[in-house]
User: Fold these one by one.
Assistant:
Number 1:
Amino acid sequence: MCREGVPRGRQSCAQVHRTSTDSRWLLPCNLVSVNPADLRSAVRAAVAAVVDNGELSVPVPDEVTVERPKVKGHGDYATSVALQLAKPAGLPPRDVAALIKAQLERADGIDSVEIAGPGFLNIWLSGAALGQVVGEVLAAGAAYGTNEVAAGQNINLEFVSANPTGPIHIGGVRWAAVGDALARLLQASGAKVTREYYFNDHGAQIDRFARSLLAAARGEAAPEDGYGSAYIAEIAQRVTEQVPDVLSQDDPQEVFRDRGVSLMFEEIKASLHDFGVDFDVYFHENSLHDSGAVHRAIERLRGLGHMYVADGAEWLRTTQFGDDKDRVVIKSDGEPAYISGDLAYYLDKRERGFDRVIIMLGADHSGYVGRLMAMCEAFGDVPRVNLQILIGQLVNLVKDGEPLRMSKRNGTVISLEDLVEAIGVDAARYALVRSSADSQIDIDLDLWASAKSDNPVWYVQYAATRAASVLRHAADLDLAAGGEVALLTHPRESELMLALAEFPSVVATAAELREPHRVARYLEEKVAKSAQRFWDECQVLPKGDAQPEPTTAPRLLLWQATRVVLENGLGLLGVSAPERM
RNA sequence: GCGCUCAUAGCUCAGUUGGAUAGAGCAGCCGCCUUCUAAGCGGCAGGUCGCAGGUUCGAGUCCUGCUGGGCGCACCA
């Protein structure tokens, strides 16, 4: 298919008491970590204990829900497990909650437990337990946030795949940012990821491109169905420079095709590289036709009995697998239809050993999902497992309150370069990944170019530079980070540590749901926000000639940990974490 | 006409597996700088989660219908 967008273009701990291994240098005592997964284990252990001593007669659930409450005042963490167990236990939820509360309160690291509302358990952690997260972050460093949810998966992630007939337009740019971020998230979650670009160098669109180049070189008007923008003349010019006698050759169009396509492709690769996106594999559609892969894929489907002949053409019975209509694979003129390339390409990816094939497409290709899923099933695979298709909505750029439609650079649709030129790579990438791909977004160029907290990427980067700034000044004053993190009991400190503790689960969730925007939202609403609030109320460095406070050294540890999370988080999005701004 | 998708504050958007009083930022109003970057922070105000039903102890979240945006519906690629 044409991949162009519209204008064509963490182990479970069976015991509540556990010896910390990650932060031995900070806290020698037995503590429940603030890692939500560990707290979940603690809650489950409390349930198991209540069941063991016969107070409650229910199967112990494999998984219990422990989450950060949405509302302040509902604890550091909260669980609705009592509500879930009330029915099977045949007891009022608050009675079940009371039993679990009694067990939970015995756990070290848990400061207090409260029964609230219909039977929620609100849990407050001790300052020492909270402080432990600082040690965990610093011990892991750049690896903090990595997890195992996608461990063992071999994923092929195809995105962008814009046709080499023009610059990458804004739709493709969204996928470049989101796809690359998703690749990083999946890698951080333990998957082996291959970033792949399907280079569509076969077919009629390329023919039109070649004819357009030829026309431009001859000074003629663009062909009716061709491309006529400024970049065409530019590419034609370059081909002419490379091959001065091109116009007098036997088949100049063929020269323009070869040279033009590679020039255009190199330009696309270069702009993506400048955007921080590099692919492991650039797959040429032509190679599928040349190698006989297309023929083999069709032969395979014939063997499986999914092909039939009608009206002089050969069809794939995709309706058997939920598609709207059957699809022509070989046209009545004997030529393979476009879908034949997709058949061969999917099979090729599976034969290369990928157990999960993910393809990111624009909303204008939502109609392709049915047939591609049918194809997947026809090959005997499981749709939505072996093959996943992510559909992203379109992006609008807004300048001075008006939608921007045309590129100044070449008079066509807005390109990658236009966007980067307007707001820079960091802002562009961040703007594109901070919203769900399901929603159509407006990017206000004035907002994203501004240096104030209205600008989300600026806000997050500013928090990172504040961390760097404090640490730099501390170094100048010969103040070392260290001391007792248990001294970090200020509400702003607790809030920040709770935020830092969430990072690995945010990464895991974002990877599993293929939603990189969750990381961005977490960084701005939880980490950057808490860090700014910490900054505002918790002076770290001694003022004037004052002596350092006992909290000075542990607060420096907290700033270090904050810096790590911001760097790691931004890194997953392909956005820099500057030292200064 | 059929299919996919979206609809949450004036605006731009969060809210996976159903849980408490639906959140953030901007815009508006009121406060906080002899202090590590005020390029910041706090507070007030702002909502029939498009509409109507249904399932459930409980629905923004699941189901059905409807309305309104976006996208798509070729032996084109």
Number 2:
Amino acid sequence: MGTEDTEEAQVKTKKRLTDDEASNAKGDTPKKSSEIKTLMLSSSEIKTLMLSSSEIKTLVLSSMKEDPDDQDFTSERTGVKRKRSKEEASSSSTRKKKKSKNREQGEEPSAAALKDKKSGQERVKEVKREVKKEEEGEPKKMKKSKEQVEEARRLKIKMKEEEEQNRWRWWEEAKYEDGVKWKFLEHKGPYFPPEFESLPANVHFYYNGQVVKLSAAAEEVALFFAQMLDHEYTTKDVFRENFFNDWRKEMTSDERQLIQDLNKCDFGELHAMHKAKVEIRKNMSKEEKLVIKQTNQKMVEEYGFCLLDHHRERIGNFKIEPPGLFRGRGEHPKQGMLKKRIQPEDVIINCSRESKIPEPPAGHRWKEVRHDNTVTWLASWTENIQGSIKYIMLNANSKLKGEKDWEKYEVARKLKACVEGIRRQYTQDLKSKQMGTRQRAVALYFIDKLALRAGNEKEEGETADTVGCCSLRVEHITVHQHLDGSDFVVEFDFLGKDSIRYYNKVPVEKKVFKNVILFMENKNPGDELFDRLNTTLLNKHLSSLMPGLTAKVFRTYNASITLQQQLRRLSNKSDNPAEKLLSYNRANRAVAILCNHQRAPPKTFDQSMANLQAKIVARKEQLALAKTELKQAKKENKAKGDPKLQTLVERKKKAVERCEEQLLKMEVQATDREENKQIALGTSKLNYLDPRISLNYLDPRISVAWCKNMDVPLDKIYNKSQRDKFAWAIDMTEEDFEF
DNA sequence: GACAATACTTAGTATATGACGG
DNA sequence: CCGTCATATACTAAGTATTGTC
């Protein structure tokens, strides 16, 4: 029901409230559109690993799972591991096992081996550099370069294999008992941002024209504001007021006495200093930048990983959020408030009882150290703006995140099996005598058909005024008996998550239409449309229809099923690679429209579009030239038959091919972007469709299977981190996979 | 049963990175 | 080799959903 409609891709207008009113143009759906992701992978794959001794140790440790006596693991932990290994052996028997064999042979990445690996990676880099030089160089050097290309390729493949071997294939292991997220967890604790350093003596703050030397606390907050001066944030009344209030709280009483009016504050020198610093950073020499890079890498090595059940896992956000001025989205009532510096005394650490407990920074202690293995976070603190809890958690490529993701798609697939029944039921419920049931039915209809979010209640005045399905108000809906040739049209206009506007005119079933009118009767614009319904009630009902079913599952289900259908409809095995990618991107776009995913347009959109067109023209010329050169070379070759000329012909041929390929690619890219813009501009002046975000809703196995079917290399579709994140799907998916 | 607390996913924006053309 | 630009990653706000508490 929902999906067919999405295929028609009704034009939807979306944008921020603050933007100009859209023209509500109901244009035709552009016939072509998509976005080519040019993926540059090679260099990221060849990341130079700075192996600290700690990493080597952890790697060695994790590789020694077959040799527990040698380690400081408790017998309990090793016992668990042994048991799981056995289970793994039996449970994975139905799956592909070829790759796991190396893992079981207990290959030990000794320090020496690791060093070797590192040098291998460096070699690849060197070879690549040289290859680059060669390509531009003399033809006679080609031979050598070919060898080196070959070597580089081999090394790359070897590294890939190595990485594959080191990967934790958790999806082949048995799951833990309910609620248990890990058996062993060790980490270094979060990384704290550097302390504030007072301003240099030659940088002044002025109040009412007079130099004022601020206390350190006040100075730090003043600098937060000064740094943002270029942003329009700082011109908003709410922002300024919130900032000024919180700033004054940080002042000494003398300062507070003096500084009473933000308009009399002159942050000019602080602002200039900040800009100068940014400039200096930008103009740093290569060497200086390298030093910074290496320092960062060391930091990642030390704080960016944890040890979870014998496996070294990347942490997603190991840094404590630095202090600053809160920037909410949309018309946030708390924008500009001071986000305070977090101290170790605010932080709760979570890890194994028997692990090495992280050391708090010198002179500090943790708020608490707990050992709760039913949660996935490593550290947490309470943030002062909303009073919500922030967590340090693992990277998306970790077991904990991956398993949850997988589970999510499995629930959505289960919904596929029973969605027809559920639709029949809510269609029935539209006629219910119970008001609550009817409201539930209409809400469900919207959630299913339009992929609306559930719409939890929010505390008024705490956040921007945004809504989802259950929290829609009368003012967000307009009903039209007839509109643009359709009957029973409901017009939605509200701000959703992140204050992104949702604007849509949808023809609905008559019963739905009548109900909406009924729900709106005798209500004020500010009243709730579904006054007898909330997300808890809705989800209670849903979970009674199918275990694990909640409102958001519909978004996952409808997005994934749409992608699958669109891919089947749009792509052909006989298409050329660029066309295949275009189809893939178009299918993704259909999902982005469904999910109302947008972003601010790049400031330089028009410029870059023009650039691309110019490039295409240039490439066309180049192609023409290459063709004539090829002809010329062929002619000469025929006449003389020189072997040298023969190779020249070959080269020219290659050049022509390369040109054609690139031209095709660029043209597809141009089409894609142009169409993206068309969709966006047909609906809103300021926002663009963002097909990338839909990733959260799309079962990666659909894409993996599609790649296999279409003979498209996976790295055309997923970049490195996406491939890491979806390793489970890439490993287990065959070409006959069906969502 | 309301409501607050908790945990975890989703999402847009800012910034870093690195490929590519000049 | 260097600047420009697109892409990748970092960051963190803003959602969803469940659980605990009174």
